[in-house]
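Predict the 3D structure for this chain.
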Amino acid sequence: MSERAVTTNPYGLLRKEQARQDGYGVVGEIIGGTGNHAPPAAHHSTGWTKALEGTHVEKFTLSTEVVLTYRPDGCAYQGREAAYGPGWNRLENELEGLQAAVMDQAEKDSRYVSALAKWSSCMRKSGYVYDDLQAPRKELARDVESTDGSDRALRSLGGEELRIASDDYVCERRARLHEAVYEAQRYAEKSALNDSTRADLRRYQMLKRKALGPPNRSTPPAQSEGNAQQRLPQARHAGMISLP
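Done. Predicted structure below.
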């Protein structure tokens, strides 16, 4: 994943420097070679693909009652289980589903809905007609497709993107949208998380820290309970949620 994808806020909120220097990352991804204009992926034989993805299909039901299919005989599945530990694939899917549920609830919270309406009104005063935070990104993506793909055209569109993103950030702050998201999410987490899901989060953190940490080095000591922050895995917006 690109650095932009990892650091993008799951709700679409902007940071000041991000808005000023990179906008939404729409044009930047393309100029950097990781967007829609990037070279196509390499083609592999059917046998190679089957070995990687597996052929034996099984199903399991998440706690959210979502049914997922997986192929336990595939190299990708087995590789993740070997690298992170038994049960990793299911654990990650469980927590991604949990994050999606938390975000859905937060986005329906009256505090978020009210702040979003104020943001939209603020953007209209600046000359933009956007009803949600993803609208500017969608519009810019369409604009990219309408260009001739030249460096000059993309950089011109990139300048426009920076202007929109800067105005967006100002409106987010004026509408106190960041604060509304924080409060709505904390409320959603309290109702969505229980002892079982918190235990899953601790196990997820432990397995990931152990797999990604330097070899032959013990796992760093856990933070004190008062300062520790548990994190849900990346989900639909490639962001993270912190627990209170």
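The chain has a mean pLDDT of 85.
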